[in-house]
Amino acid sequence: MSEALRQSLDLALFWEYRFVLFGGLLFNAAIFACAAAAALVLGLCAALLRVSLMRPLRWGGTVYVELFRNAPDYVMLVWVHFVLPLLLGLALRTRIEFHPFVSAVVALGLVYSGYFAETFRAGIQAIPKGNIEAGRAVGMSEALILRRITLPQVVWRMLPEALNIFVSLFKATTIVSLIAVPDLMYRVSMVTQQEMRPLPLYTGAALTYFAVILVVATLLRWASERWRRTVLV
Amino acid sequence: MNEAPCIRVVDVHKKFGPLEVLKGVSFDVHRGSVVSMIGASGSGKSTLLRCINYLEVPSAGAIYIEGESLGFQEDAAGRRSARPLRDINRMRRDLGVVFQQYNLWPHMTVLGNIVEAPIRVRGLSRKEAVRVADECLRRVRLSDKAHEYPARLSGGQQQRAAIARALAMRPKVMLFDEPTSSLDPELTDEVLNVMRELAEAGSTMIVVTHEMDFARDVSDRVLFLHDGLIDEEGRPGQVFTAPRSERCRQFLAKYLK
């Protein structure tokens, strides 16, 4: 076994820094949670625009979705962190700076809201019209119909696809180190500069992400399929 | 029958683009009576039923529920203005609708389907709503299926669950839109029997149907629609044995052999 390979697989150094590094993983988790929440809310709003009966609203929804769905994560991150504060500062005539954590959440939230919007839209359009009419016929308001009849069924339909998007989003959180959010990858880079032994550190980071995503995604898929099977649509 | 009609339909027109489906239909439904609407496919009977609770908004004309206009309100000076959707929703609670395709909510159990509107629209407590639901399920003989999801039920059971869901709102009038048209013949009777019992118990019902036996035996009045107009109306004995309209006679001849 070559020396380089032996070093790559010797995770003792990674383990030595485990508290610092896993602390970074919490940042990934926090950014993921905040960006996912933002993406779901914005995605639902965009989807409702996309299925609106009013044409200008539909157009607005389409522009929103295409804009953010087609923006690369990294470009969006840099743009939100460096350009957006400048534009806002000009508009409000004040100096604005975003905390890197905020920029990360906004950028990833926007990009992934584009994906969620399309998943929501497909889910909403797949619901039989009769379901909605049955709600109207018993005097339910449109908001109540959305909350009690449409959304639960949309969630049922979109769960498998949504889990895939969540996995992509979690993976995308690893680029936030580029704007100095102290996540796992950022801390690995820092430790590497100290120790000058990048191989075990990056291998450790790769295995950690892999294990976390595999375990969490598998558990979630199992739970979601179990729930989906009890409710046959 | 001197009291005000439970439902009054006045000169209702309905257009879909250039196509005029209803061309001015008027009739009254009195409390406790059963009115059947028959006619060929495309005659406008389902559209008419859907206009009665504003699932389709009439292009012209008016619907009155116990004297109150469903689509319009009048101020003290007699000026008419469109009713806000909130008011229409409030009035819809008094009209139970049973659809051809059942339209049960698939993500809720039968019980969940039945208690949903009483709790969230009528504001009943869950306990009270479940008590009402149990009573409705007994009426449609479906008590043993309360905790099943709709997809696990036969078509007939789903339609009876849908009837229970409508009954649980304690509507003043039940509207049935071809309730047995999606059912296999052997499942039709279980739904029709439930409807017969509702009629015998004094429910006010408007039934769009192709079941001529039901229309003849259970209705107080029969309306025959043709081309967006009421072409024949009267007591079932008269409509089925001595129709004045030639088209009605031809239509019935196909069904009653």
Keywords:
heterodimer; A: 233 residues; mainly alpha; MetI-like fold; B: 257 residues; alpha/beta; six-stranded mixed β-sheet; four-stranded antiparallel β-sheet; 9 helices; 12 strands; 25% strand; globular
Spatial strand arrangement across the major sheet of chain B: 8-9-10-3-11-12
Portion of residues within helices of chain B: 25-40%
Taking Cα atoms only, what radius of gyration of chain A do you get, to the nearest Å? 22 Å
Low-confidence segments of chain A, given as residue ranges, are none
Percent strand of chain B equals: 25-35%
Oligomer status: heterodimer
CATH class of chain A: Mainly Alpha
CATH topology annotation of chain A: MetI-like fold
Order of helices and strands of chain B: EEEHEEEEHEHHHEHEHEEHH
User: How would you describe the shape of chain A?
Assistant: flat
Give the topology string of chain A: H per helix, E per strand: HHHHHHHHHH
The chain-level structural class of chain B is: alpha/beta
Average predicted local confidence, pLDDT of chain B = 92
How many strand units of chain B?
Answer: 12
Sheet/helix structural class of chain A? mainly alpha
Q: What is the number of beta strands of chain A?
A: 0
Helix content of chain A: over 70%
Global mean pLDDT of chain A: 91
Task: Give the largest interface.
Answer: A-B, 23 and 30 residues
* Largest beta-sheet characterization of chain B: 6 strands, mixed
> Please, how many helices of chain A?
10
